[in-house]
Amino acid sequence: MGLFSFIKDAGAKIFGGKTSAEEAAEAAANKEAAIKEANDQAASKLKETISDLDLKAENLQISITGDTATVSGKAYDQTTKEKIILVVGNSTGIGVVNDQMEVENNEPEAQFHTVVSGDTLSKIAKKYYGNAMKYPEIFEANKPMLSDPDKIYPGQVLRIPALDS
């Protein structure tokens, strides 16, 4: 008497089922397909949101792999491109935006600011412009993603455009 060790996935399939290795491979394939489907749905929802915000880009394409979203297409101007990137990047689950967009009409690029606890648009304006009363510039630069200058949150990324001279 005693215990005998065997390799459970080797040998004849007496019970007609799949080996645990085959089941694991099938489960992995199903999981991968489910993740791809979820990423495709998220990308589609982002495109819909961008359209709802009236941000237009020719041939806009968004693909998501892991926490990285790749965005391509042609925006009318730099402002529209940056707003599209912010819509995508400020979405749950997205940690990196791979910008592959082109711009039809070039203009200066804005700076980006990641909101931290305690930030207000006035504090941010003071930091970048030297004048807290310039906060409406930042608010306007982030419309329509911002609907109220008092509703920003830690982790959110905002556009900080250069001031017109």
TrEMBL record:
Protein known as: Potassium binding protein Kbp
SUPFAM superfamilies: LysM domain
Keyword Cytoplasm attributed: yes
Primary site of residence: cytoplasm
Sections of the chain in a coiled coil: 21-63
Keyword vocabulary terms for this entry: Coiled coil, Cytoplasm
InterPro entries noted in UniProt: Bact_Kbp, LysM, LysM_dom_sf
Originating species: Galbibacter marinus
CDD domains membership: LysM
Occurrences of domain LysM (ranges): 111-160
Signal peptide: none
PANTHER family linked to this entry: POTASSIUM BINDING PROTEIN KBP (PTHR34700)
Subcellular location: Cytoplasm
The keyword tRNA-binding is assigned to this record: no
GO cellular component: cytoplasm
